[in-house]
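The data are quoted verbatim for completeness:
=====
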Amino acid sequence: MATILLVVLGALTIYFLSYFIKDIYRNRNNLGKGNYVISMIIGFITDFLDTLGIGCFAPTTLAFKLTKYLKSDALLPGTLNIAHSIPVILEAFIFIRVVEVSPVTLISLVIAAIIGSFVGSRTVVKLPEKKVQMIMGIALIITAVLMILKQQGLLDALGKDNTALGLTGIRLVIGIVGNFIFGALMSAGVGLYAPCMAMVALLGLNPLVAFPIMMGSCAGLMPVASVEYIKVGEYSRKAAIGITLGGIVGVVIAATLVKSMNLEILMWVIIVVIIYTGISMLIQSLKGKEEVMEV
């Protein structure tokens, strides 16, 4: 059944690329402002971190804010989903093949996330910039809190001694509902990794099982959500191209170096700046006058 899931993810990749490439070609003479070198560096770093389970949405949001890459925060959800789709799909292919997990659990949770993203993306594209800023601000702070819990070993403690490789009964239902919600939120730019990791541990699964579930979920939902953003043009094309290219390289390198890396200090630096970024976005969302970020 894992092979079937990989075939489905392959089909979704083709579906996504057919829209993405067509949109880039159609707008080839007007791809907007942005720097390919900067976006490739951002993609390399954030998808490197993503492969290690840190997540890519919050670090990418941070990078965009620091470099003032986007002209508007309203472009964040679409850019995040479109830019990281291919690198995350590559991650999914790697982890689904090497980590053992119940096929029923894996496929059920991935499908739930995909449906959630489809519902969520059709709502988020209609939101004004202030609403997106508020959602992203709250999401970043929640993400930082979950990252702190993980750094302190509290999330790991939830899954300590867990050996189950699959869910059944009411636990499976809870997992499906949870991943549906996470999928819907991810279409708004809220990372799925941390909440999914916490849910997997709470439901009694081996924490390692979170990797194929969360990466498979993202690989399935991101192409679906991305197409909705591509249709309305709500994303930075240059950022998406650069991050995709840099991200692929980051994933390949991270997959080979993950066992020898010490990310303790880096994680705390990221947490501090993510909190700062989240608070800044909340403040912007509460201001009366619409502010537009410079490119």
User: Anything to note?
Assistant: Residues 2-286 form one domain. Confidence is low (pLDDT under 50) at residues 289-295.
